[in-house]
Input
Amino acid sequence: MTDVTTAGSRSLSGTGEAHSAPAKRARKRPGGRKLALYVALGILTILFISPLLYMTSTAFKTRPDAESIVPQWIPKTFTLDAWRTVLNDDANPVARWFFNSIMAATLQAILIVAVCSLAAYPLARMDFRGKKALFALIIATLFIPPIIMLIPNWVVVSELKWLDNLIAIIVPTAASAFGVFFLRQFFISLPRELEEAAYLDGANRWQIFWKVIVPLSKPALATLALLSFLSNWNDFLWPVYVLFSGEKQTLQSGLATLQSANSVRYDLLMTGALLASVPVLLLYLLAQRFIIEGVSRSGLKG
Output
């Protein structure tokens, strides 16, 4: 009886080991795949950030090192000469351009969020005659290439005496069709029960919008503000047409002047480019959580 029991236990243990071996191998496979995925992502990350790293390195090089044919990832001599030249050049006031870009992009982002939220709320929550046709007309404007509106916008700005003024790059594109569409999609995803509860408590439409909808829409509003800021910050063509004075230039249009004035000063060019990149990188780091949440929730309903 003992021999039979021992043999049975051996056979069971052998069977268990036979079944556990493939299971262990199956558990090991995902680990290998995950490692390979991490390696691939690491390589892609290096490829994507390598231009930024080289730009940062060049901004702290001496002029001969920056113009060297042999690439140098680490400066032989760490210097701030390029920064002193860029920030103290009276002919090319980069610091003033930077301030102009910050002010214009910030004010336009605030204006776009205000205008688009007020336009998107009725389209998402209110019923009125012609709502679908109005929304279709707004969406249709997204198919118009922006370059077509260059001359009409210039004529309007000229008639309003806004040329060579920062207001010319803040107001004309404040009515964003994409912003209206984006916020409408987000507002639709919010539960109506919250509005109904506020209405029963005696709140009017404006109070419901300001005290219920806006606080719940912070991710979408932050995302739209960031996208609007970046769009204005990176704009090059429009400022070139409407801003003429050296002190009124934005950073992107001003850097083109800096490039033409210092065509071989790569240390100066990389310093200006790095200065233009810093606000964008900081905004992405600070607002990435809002961006992910805002974009993910804006596509829940059509």
About this structure: DSSP finds 13 helices and no strands in the chain.
